[in-house]
Amino acid sequence: MTTLKVEIYKDRLLVLTGTEEQLQPLTAAPKHWLLPGGGLAVPWTWRDSAWLTAQGVPAVSPIFRDYDWPMPTDWRLMSHQARIADFCVRNRRGYVLAGTGSGKSASLTWATDYLLQVGAIKRVLVIAPLSVMSDAWTPTLGRLLLGRRRHAELYGTKELRLARARGDHDYHIINVDGLKNDEVHAQLMRNKYDAIVIDESTMIKTASTARWKLVKPLVDQATFAWQLTGTPTPQGPDDAHGQLKMFDRFGTLDMPLTWWQNLTSYKVTKFKRVPLAGWQDTVHKYMRPAISFKTRDCIDLPPITYIHRKVPITKVQEKAIAALLTHNAVRLDGQLVQAPNQAIVFAKLAQILAGAAYGEDGTVIEVRPTQRLEETAHIMGQAEGKVIVFAPIKAAVRLIAEDMRKRGFKVATITGDVSKNQRQKIFDEFQKPGRETLDGLIAVPDAMSHGVTLTEASDTVWYAPVSKAEVYQQAIARMERQGQKRHMNVVHLWGHPRERDLYDALKSRGKGASKLQALYDKLVRGDMT
After folding, report:
1. How many helices (H) and strands (E) does the chain have?
2. How far apart are CA 218 and CA 215, in angstroms?
3. End-to-end Cα separation, the chain, in angstroms
4. Is-contact 170 192, C-beta < 8 A?
5. Residue 342 CB partners (closer than 8 Å, separation 6+)
6. Residue 109: which of 148, 74, 73 has the closest Cα?
7. 201 or 3, which is more confident?
8. Which architecture, in CATH terms, is 305-310+368-525?
9. If 0-12 CB within 10 Å is exposed, 13-18 middle and 19+ buried, where does residue 35 land?
10. Cα–Cα separations (whole angstroms), residue 90 to 67, 236, 422
């Protein structure tokens, strides 16, 4: 035989058959038996399957045989999630390349719980953006492992983070920027986590940043570490350098960015480089071991995944909202913003949360929502297809578009000021396959015709909620139409607690009109609970 083959015998042994040359290195297995007819057998245990994987043998772990896959009754295990979990328990370093909505956090929860169960690890640290930490990891760990593992978010004041970091938990979850405090980082180093999960690994794509330098020592002392992302190189080959260097994928040599750039791109001018043809193959060569799923390939996923992303409001927004709710007026940047009745209070609150409020004379006052812009850019870079971003007011559309363009994204805008003919040109451009000319569309939802088809979009981002369920549903329907080939994600950005509840009411397809009104009333009363 020329190809090494692995089979499971009586649910106890891994039987390997191949050439003598292929089998000879495997006789170093801690426990093995040479078979009379040729071949080799090893026990089917987690440790042996991991050892074989390290030798390049296509083994499979006994997680499928031994693990109970805990979950509530309204969850189900998807085949790609089981494969991701199996990959992670067999690889001490690895890249999980799976898109938004594919259930990566559940896969890694099961993988780490299994490793805790077999005694391979004792503590897990999850490092993620704040939005993913609060809206993906904390609820997933809580729902899947409730009662069998303890977890804590390391978020809030320095004292609170330190107290929780010193606690006896199986899982700690921290925002990547929460590592910047010296005392907190020192405590995490003392904790000596056996497993590190870096979710949305493009946040450590640049090895010269403080973020990267804080994550690296934590990874170096861990037995297991995995990087998770949907698109590892959203802006080109340079993005791979820090992610590869985090796992020492260049060997023992400390390869600088300039070396990687010369390998994957060429210089056009002093300040501009262009990727070489086939640079993706070079990234693939180094970014191993890896398991990859495009969200649309996960055929057992529902057609649309709704995702909440927490994006904290700024101190300026917080004070402005408090003043508006107390006095029905607030002064921003020297301009007066007034709200004489409840309906206008809600409208002004929406403007402040979206980052662009209208003054008394109609002047636009920017209340720059930094985290919302960061999260929007992140989604724009990670999405499989193009992205539609909906903001309820025209001034916010302009603000978002300007920010995305400064970050290098190609976006068009749709507001009531855009003529019918110009809109059609934009829609036609959007529907062209690929992202050569457009990455996304920023729009006021009321300005989008019901008949528009935008199936090149894979993600719809709500920058702030609207007031009508019909407008919300019709806006989402732009990508949910015949011809759509990708799994779709609807991402709700929220900072004020009532915003998240409003999204849930909007999602009820108009059946909760009274609930929606009640939530508006609570919002204008300033009810933060």
Report:
1. 21, 23
2. 5
3. 67
4. no
5. 521, 524
6. 148
7. 201
8. 3-Layer(aba) Sandwich (3.40)
9. middle
10. 14, 30, 54
Give pTM, 2 decimals.
0.71
As given in the structure block, the two tokens for residue 182 are 């010296």
Helix axis angle for 342-354 and 394-406, nearest 10°, is 10
Query: Tell me: the pLDDT tens digits for 403-426?
Result: 999 999 999 999 988 887 888 899
% helix, strand, coil for the chain, step of 5: 45, 20, 35
More confident residue, 520 or 100: 100
User: What string of H, E and C letters represents the secondary structure of 347-360?
Assistant: HHHHHHHHCEEECC
* CA contacts within 13 A on the Cβ side of 486: 23
Q: Which two tokens stand for residue 362?
A: 């109609």
Q: Note whether 386 and 435 are within 8 A (CB).
A: yes
- Give the number of other CB atoms < 10 A from CB of residue 93: 18
Residue 271's pLDDT is what? 83
H or E element that contains 413 = strand 411-414
Q: Map out the domains of the chain as residue ranges.
A: 5-60, 65-301, 305-310+368-525
What number does CATH give the domain 65-301? Answer: 3.40.50.10810
| pLDDT, position 293 | 82
The set of residues, in sequence order, having a beta carbon less than 8 Å from that of 486 and lying 6+ positions away, is 295, 296, 384, 385, 458
- Is residue 94 within 8 A of residue 243, CB to CB? The reply is no
Of residues 463, 237, 511, the one with CA closest to residue 351: 463
Q: What is the predicted pLDDT for the residue at 334?
A: 52
Using the structure block, give the residue that is written with the tokens 């006052």.
365
Same fold, 65-301 and 305-310+368-525: yes
More confident residue, 324 or 45: 45
Q: What are phi and psi of 435, to 5 degrees?
A: -120, 30
What is the number of other CB atoms lying within 10 angstroms of the CB of residue 47? 16
Backbone angles phi, psi at 211, to 5 degrees: -55, -50
pLDDT at 450 over 70: no
pLDDT in tens, 254-306: 789 999 999 999 999 888 899 999 999 999 999 999 999 876 565 444 468 88
Mean pLDDT score across all residues of the chain: 85
How many angstroms separate the Cα of 289 from the Cα of each of 91, 104, 234? 8, 17, 20
Q: Which tens digit of pLDDT belongs to each residue from 66-90?
A: 999 999 987 889 889 999 999 999 9
Among the listed residues 296, 266, 294, 297, the one whose alpha carbon sits nearest the alpha carbon of residue 279: 266
